[in-house]
Design goal:
Residues 10-82 form the AAA+ ATPase At3g28540-like C-terminal domain. This protein is mainly α. It has 5 helices and no strands. The radius of gyration is 23 Å and the shape is elongated. The protein starts with 11 loop residues before the first helix and ends in a 16-residue tail after the last helix.
C-alpha cells in the first residue's frame, strides 16, 4: 500500500538548526540571502541538509552555504518555469475542455448532471 506523507518545508529557523548541526555555525554573512530565498522557495529540510553536508574539505562552510544558495535559486527558477508552463497549458486548452474539467471538479458527470444516470431495473 502506498502512503504519501506530506512534509513541511524548511523555515529559516530550521535551517539555522541544520547549519549548527552540520557546519557548527551560529551565524554567517550569507544567512541573510538564505533567509530571503527560503521565504520565496519551497525546499524540504532533507534537501537543505543535503546541501549543507560538506562534500569537500571539512571546514569549508562558505562552499556549503553557496551550494545551498545555488540550490535554492535553482528550485525557485524551476517553480517559476513550472507555473508558467501550467498557465500556458491552461490557456491553450479549449474552452470545452475547461468546462469539462470544471464539471469534474464540481462533481458533475459526463452528461452534465449532478447525479449519475441510473440504469432501469
Amino acid at each position: 500500500m502506498d502512503k504519501h506523507i506530506e512534509l513541511s518545508y524548511c523555515s529559516f529557523e530550521a535551517f539555522k538548526v541544520l547549519a549548527k548541526n552540520y557546519l557548527l555555525l551560529e551565524t554567517h554573512h550569507l544567512y541573510a540571502r538564505i533567509q530571503e530565498l527560503l521565504g520565496e522557495t519551497k525546499m524540504t529540510p532533507a534537501e537543505v541538509a543535503e546541501h549543507l553536508m560538506p562534500k569537500t574539505l571539512p571546514g569549508d562552510d562558505k562552499v556549503c552555504l553557496e551550494g545551498l544558495i545555488a540550490g535554492l535559486e535553482k528550485a525557485k527558477e524551476d517553480a517559476r518555469l513550472k507555473a508558467e508552463e501550467e498557465e500556458a497549458k491552461e490557456k491553450a486548452s479549449s474552452p470545452e475542455e475547461n468546462a469539462k474539467e470544471k464539471g469534474k471538479e464540481n462533481g458533475l458527470c459526463a452528461n452534465g448532471n449532478a447525479e449519475m444516470s441510473k440504469e432501469k431495473e
